[in-house]
Write a structure and sequence with these properties.
Length: about 190
């Protein structure tokens, strides 16, 4: 973004501090006019014909732009991917423990990556890993949905779950507030 003397075109369309159109004028005259008001001439649309410039306080403009970017960043939903690792011979208790953690993470709005790690001869029995992932998929259907089907990458097989999106209006995109009290959504008989 060019300001004041760095604007190298002969004439520009100028917009005043309060947003009024001042028309097309010589660049030097526009810079002089901005200086008289103690402000800067800032090029806002360099590709227009002629380029559009505003008379504003450039320092304040930068500050507000930075502040807006910070606000936008705060409003972004942050989704983390948490991982649970299994081996083809993972015992039932270990499976239950890891499945419980995956369930909690999905309820909190995070994604879960479940990985089966194969070593040596275990690679010949991939169906054991596939069975574990199928069981995990069945156990987590009420809180999560599969985003990436099970697949092999090197010596690992993995599946990715995302938090379940509730059907219906609201339009909030939903994340961490989804597991609020269930109320009339589930379990209650419908009246006809």
């Amino acid at each position: 973004m060019r300001i004041n003397e760095r604007i190298r075109v002969p004439e520009v369309r100028v917009i005043g501090e309060d947003g009024e159109q001042l028309g097309v004028m010589d660049t030097r005259d526009a810079v002089r006019r901005a200086r008289e008001q103690g402000l800067d001439l800032v090029e806002v649309a360099p590709n227009a014909e002629p380029p559009v410039c505003r008379i504003i306080d450039y320092g304040k403009f930068q500050y507000e732009a930075k502040k807006k970017a910070g606000e936008a960043k705060k409003k972004q939903a942050v989704i983390t991917v948490k991982e649970v690792k299994f081996r083809p011979g993972t015992d039932d208790h270990d499976y239950d423990y890891r499945m419980k953690h995956a369930r909690e993470w999905l309820q909190d709005g995070d994604k879960v990556k479940a990985t089966i790690w194969f070593r040596g001869r275990e690679m010949t029995h991939r169906e054991l890993g596939a069975r574990i992932l199928e069981k995990l998929e069945r156990d987590l259907t009420d809180v999560g949905e599969v985003e990436a089907r099970p697949r092999m990458e090197g010596n690992q097989m993995f599946i990715i779950f995302g938090p379940k999106r509730h059907k219906g209006g609201g339009g909030g995109g939903g994340t961490k507030a989804e597991h609020a009290p269930q109320g009339a959504r589930e379990g209650e008989p419908q009246q006809s």
